[in-house]
Amino acid sequence: MSVVRSPVPYAITSGYYNFPEATVETFRNLWFHTGDLAYRDDDGYYFFVDRKKDSIRRRGENVSAYEVERALNAHEAVLESAAIAVPAELGDDEIKACVVPRPGARVSPEELLTFCDERLPRFMVPRYVEFLEELPKTATEKIEKYRLRAEGDRGITPGTWDRQQAGFQFSRTSTESGT
């Protein structure tokens, strides 16, 4: 997880307004714990990977919601998406894709998952897909994933398509875990 500290006191922030617990949690040992997962390359450049709270643990593998969303958003019929963790039957998580299609575009869950299967390791391909008219957002247009996870039965709603329940099979064979 990324941590930062300014040489100038209170240059980042003095804390979260009316959330002293969050301030104490985020500021530890004089360092601001961003909650971002990032890495630094050999040239000193930093690259954002994901938010720690948005990471997904599926069948023993760490999955970046950001990477899943990048693959989903590359489909021509997708306007935007959010990948969230939903509890699996036997521990860990399953991946749910909440997808907003472009106006007038049509895409099936099977087509979308086949598209993702060509771009992601099999364990990163979502099990669940739900098409929405819009994603819940903050005033600054940040997707409120916690609201998507809270809907229905721990993120699964009557409108959620389940590839296992549908009997969907990928066309290419894979030796990766989670097929």
Question: Can you describe what's shown?
Answer:
The chain is α+β, with helices and mostly antiparallel strands. The chain has 2 domains: 3-52, Luciferase, Domain 3 (Luciferase, domain 3, Roll), CATH 2.30.38.10; 55-166, GMP Synthetase, Chain A, domain 3 (2-Layer Sandwich). Helices cover 20% and strands 27% of the residues. The chain is built from 5 helices and 11 strands, in the order E-H-E-E-E-E-E-E-H-E-E-H-E-H-E-H. The protein has a 4-stranded mixed β-sheet with strand order 8-9-10-11. It has a 3-stranded antiparallel β-sheet with strand order 1-3-2. A hairpin with a 2-residue loop joins strand 6 and strand 7. The longest helix has 9 residues, at 65-73.
Order of strands across the widest beta sheet?
Answer: 8-9-10-11
Quickly give the CATH architecture of the largest domain: 2-Layer Sandwich
The CATH topology of the largest domain? GMP Synthetase, Chain A, domain 3
What proportion of the residues is helical, as a percent range?
10-25%
Radius of gyration: 18 Å
CATH superfamily membership of the largest domain, which one? ANL, C-terminal domain
Strand runs, count: 11
Low-confidence segments, given as residue ranges, are: none
- The count of helical stretches stands at 5
